[in-house]
Amino acid sequence: MLDLNQMALFVQVVQAGSFAEAARRLAMPPTTLSRQVAQLEDALQARLLQRTTRKLTLTDAGRTLFDQCAAQIDALKNAASQLAGDNQTPKGSIRVAASAGFFEFFQMEWIAEFLDRFPGVQLEFVLADAMADFIGEGIDVAFRGSPELPDSSLVARKVASGYFALAASPAYLAARGTPRTVQDLVAHDCIRAVGQTGPTTWRLNGPDGPTQITVSGRFSANTGPAQKKAAIGGLGICLLPIGSLQTSFRSGELVAVLPGVASGIGNLYVVYPSRRHVPRAVTAFVEMTVQRLTPLIQAPFAKATPPA
Predict the structure, then answer these.
(1) Under 8 Å CB-to-CB from 235, ≥6 apart: which residues?
(2) How far, in Å, are 38, 100, 196, 296 from residue 31 at the CA level?
(3) Which residues does 6 contact at the CB level (< 8 Å), separation at least 6?
(4) How do strand 192-193 and strand 141-144 relate by DSSP bridges?
(5) Who's near 88: CB < 8 A, 6+ residues apart?
(6) If you write DSSP's letter for every residue of 22-76 in order, what string do you get?
(7) Other CB atoms within 10 Å distance of the CB of residue 162
(8) Residues 6 or more apart from 26 whose CB is under 8 A from it?
């Protein structure tokens, strides 16, 4: 079977005019190049080049082979070069998996700016709190708060860290009072996550160091957005990622409870199906996302506004 790589090297030698010049262009030893062409001649059982110390000429067989394959070899080189160039320009469809509350803090204006910058890119989002099926759902990249991966072939990279903060609506605080210490939370309705059986313990950090408090409440939900809506609706005090609360702090729907008290550190991970040959469009989207989210989830706690 003919070696197409050897045929491409043969064309390079003819086009360069010598083994030495072709070797320089290809960044390979001349002896290696000469050996590859010799092996091609053995496979064809025909001499392709007449070699002298000063001159390199084609035989009849060599001329025939060059005339018939040079254009195809050049076309393959051009196709490869174009593909390499395309890979440097973000384009194509990106299927993104993220938590159900991703757009609680990730602004659509950022999406619009990204798509304006890269008109050849299309974005598709699969939003769910459960880990997506990368292969079955065709996921290119996922954003998660945990590095735990159901498939060992997946690759996770931590890109940012942030905090969980306490928040409630002004109406709730006006009716029930504003907690002044962590211990005051025991007397309040606290919005809990579904799946927590028995007492719910919040592990908090504040000016006096780490502490934990057992809280209770009459409302619980399995997603951050639902817990946030419950807090806005006056059902109690929520404990959610600071990034998801910033918009509501600015609008006044929520105010910070016990500013400066946080629940540990929450991490943001980017998960890829493989670490090799990540499309440029995916890399560009991840870079934009990290750039936008890092200052948001690491932002200082908003100052609580006393209810009227």
Answers:
(1) 172, 189, 191, 217, 218, 219
(2) 10, 60, 70, 58
(3) 36, 37, 39, 40, 43
(4) unpaired
(5) 280
(6) HHHHHTS-HHHHHHHHHHHHHHHTS--EEE-SS-EEE-HHHHHHHHHHHHHHHHH
(7) 23
(8) 9, 12, 33
pTM: 0.55
State how far the Cα of 247 lies from the Cα of 254, in Å rounded to an integer: 9
The residue type at 191: I
Tell me how far apart the alpha carbons of residues 188 and 172 are, in angstroms, rounded to a whole number: 10
pLDDT in tens, the chain (308 residues): 677 788 888 888 888 888 888 888 788 888 888 898 889 888 888 888 887 656 788 888 888 888 888 888 877 776 665 655 555 678 888 999 988 878 877 889 999 999 999 999 999 999 887 777 787 788 889 888 766 666 666 788 887 777 889 999 999 999 999 999 999 999 999 999 886 556 788 988 877 788 889 999 999 988 888 999 999 999 999 999 887 888 899 999 999 999 888 876 667 788 888 766 688 889 899 989 888 877 766 554 434 333 33
The SS3 assignment for 219 reads: coil
Asked whether 211 and 204 are in contact (CB, 8 A), the reply is yes
**Kind plus residue range of the DSSP H or E element containing 213:** strand 209-215
Instruction: Report residue 297: phi and psi, to 5°.
Output: -80, -15
Scanning the structure block, which residue is given the tokens 């105010």?
255
Query: Is-contact 249 167, C-beta < 8 A?
Result: yes
Q: 92: left (phi > 0), else alpha (psi -120 to 50), else beta?
A: left
Q: How many CA atoms lie within 13 A of 154 on its CB side?
A: 23
> Dihedral (C-alpha) 249, 253, 258, 264: value to the nearest 10 degrees?
-60
